[in-house]
Write a structure and sequence with these properties.
With 471 residues, the chain is an all-alpha fold. The chain is 60% helix and 0% strand. The N terminus and C terminus are likely disordered.
Length: 471
């Protein structure tokens, strides 16, 4: 053990090293507001940041930050002020935030984009200003760092979408344009579709982000901007354009997709073929005709029925899977017998799951249980996507009593997305009498349905108040 004088000196040093933090943690709002006027830029930046962290939604704080965002000579102070206004979520400073989209400093403009989105979400939205990592072949909006989107019932101020659309189309800096495009996606900004369409045509470097934003918005009217890119020379652009049209269920794309499918795969070298056979879910770019088949399967139009039939026995697993997914969406019982025979000899689990789903959609109702049971396996994402398209929410009600708790909660979550008033009545007993995790899942599902049906949450919304029985 060190001698007493050494121990005492160490304690004194430790106390002094912690002192600034302790002082900072106890600074009053008045002190921080005063520091926001300091001649020292670093002090003003620190004050602006801490005011946001306090989430103090007072008129004095909001006005002080708005002035700093508009007038401070230091760009980083303006940046911190904008960030804090987004965290505080007070719309009285919206005009200053929108003005900041024209700030001469690119970093301030980019932070403003993030701040505007922060007005509506508490989730991590750093991906808006980061470089993208990859994308998921089952659901291209869910890549490794980009899965945030507001609920469909959430109303977004139209002036925000308008200004973000202007930035997406016309900002001088590529990173700001991409940030604005991604922000529109998070906010489901359908009002900016036409401006995004202009950006898609004019901005080659932003095309992938525009296409993914169209998917997030989810409005089929964006489909008309995608068709010209089905034959783009960039494999990734044309793949995502076709898949986006499929996800948007844009039926006007069926004939152009069939035309692309008819072109067959591109001619390519051996190395390219070998490279693509490694089906990494974050870089999946199939051959041109396979991408068209994938998109056609997502739409499921009867015009492509013969194309699906031709691929039912293809040697490629993915093509077989797309064939059965497309036939499932057409839901013609004429293919039920053939699918029933083929499922007996199918060895690939993803294809077999697609076949079970197709059989259910073709009228063999018991096959839905084969899809539901995959919710607790590595195929959960594929099964979840299928079950979002059940013919009726009632088809899932029996599985609300599943003994598998993960399966049960997955079914509850799906019903929260697709359910109706009858579904609420099915979920209420579960919310009242289940364990905490399942009861919470049921309550969220109920509120999600109610808010979707009514158009928005209400301040006087009642939660379930009846006492749960003792367990």
């Amino acid at each position: 053990m060190p001698p007493k004088p050494v121990r005492t000196l160490a304690l004194i040093i430790a106390l002094f090293s912690f002192a600034p933090t302790a002082v900072a943690d106890t600074q009053s709002l008045e002190t921080l507001l005063a520091y926001l006027k300091s001649p020292v830029a670093n002090t003003r930046r620190d004050a602006a940041r801490k005011l946001g962290e306090r989430r103090a939604r007072t008129q004095l704080v909001v006005e002080a930050l708005a002035v700093a965002a508009r007038k401070d000579e230091d760009s980083r102070v303006r940046q911190e002020a904008i960030r804090s206004l987004g965290m505080i979520k007070d719309f009285s400073a919206l005009s200053e935030m929108l003005d900041a989209l024209k700030d001469p400093d690119r970093d301030v403009r980019r932070e403003t984009v993030r701040g505007l989105v922060a007005l509506y979400t508490e989730h991590n939205i750093d991906f808006i200003v980061n470089r993208r990592v990859g994308w998921n072949r089952f659901n291209p909006i869910l890549d490794t760092n980009d899965n945030e989107v507001v609920e469909p019932y959430q109303r977004i101020d139209s002036s925000i979408i308008n200004h973000l659309g202007d930035s997406a189309r016309g900002d001088s800096d590529l990173d700001v344009r991409i940030a604005a495009i991604r922000a529109i996606g998070v906010l489901r900004g359908w009002g900016a579709i036409d401006k995004l369409g202009e950006a898609l045509n004019a901005d080659q470097d932003a095309r992938i982000d525009v296409i993914r934003t169209f998917i997030k918005i989810g409005d089929e009217s964006a489909g008309k901007y995608l068709i010209p890119f089905f034959r783009d020379s960039d494999r990734k652009v044309r793949t995502q354009a076709m898949v986006a049209a499929g996800l948007l269920k844009y039926r006007a794309a069926v004939d152009p997709l069939l035309s692309v499918y008819g072109l067959g795969p591109e001619k390519e070298g051996l190395m390219s073929k070998v490279g693509r056979k490694v089906k990494n879910p974050f870089s999946y770019t199939p051959a041109r005709d396979e991408a068209a088949l994938w998109a056609l399967a997502l739409i499921g139009d009867v015009k492509a029925e013969q194309t699906f039939v031709e691929n039912m026995a293809d040697k490629d697993d993915d093509r077989r899977q797309y064939a059965f997914e497309g036939l499932a969406r057409i839901a013609d019982s004429r293919h039920l017998d053939q699918t029933s025979r083929m499922i007996l000899t199918e060895d690939t689990s993803d294809v077999k799951l697609a076949q079970h789903w197709a059989l259910y959609k073709m009228g063999s109702r018991p096959n839905i249980q084969q899809v539901v049971r995959k919710l607790d396996t590595y195929q959960a994402e594929q099964a979840r996507e299928y079950l979002m398209e059940v013919d009726s929410p009632a088809d899932l009600y029996p599985y609300l009593q599943s003994s598998n708790q993960k399966t049960r909660r997955e079914v509850i979550a799906i019903l929260g997305r697709i359910g109706d008033k009858e579904t609420i009545r099915e979920l209420e007993p579960i919310a009242r009498s289940s364990g905490a995790e399942t009861a919470n899942a049921a309550t969220v599902a109920i509120k999600r349905i109610e808010w979707r049906l009514s158009g928005r949450p209400r301040a006087n919304d009642e939660v379930l108040t009846r006492e749960r029985p003792r367990r």
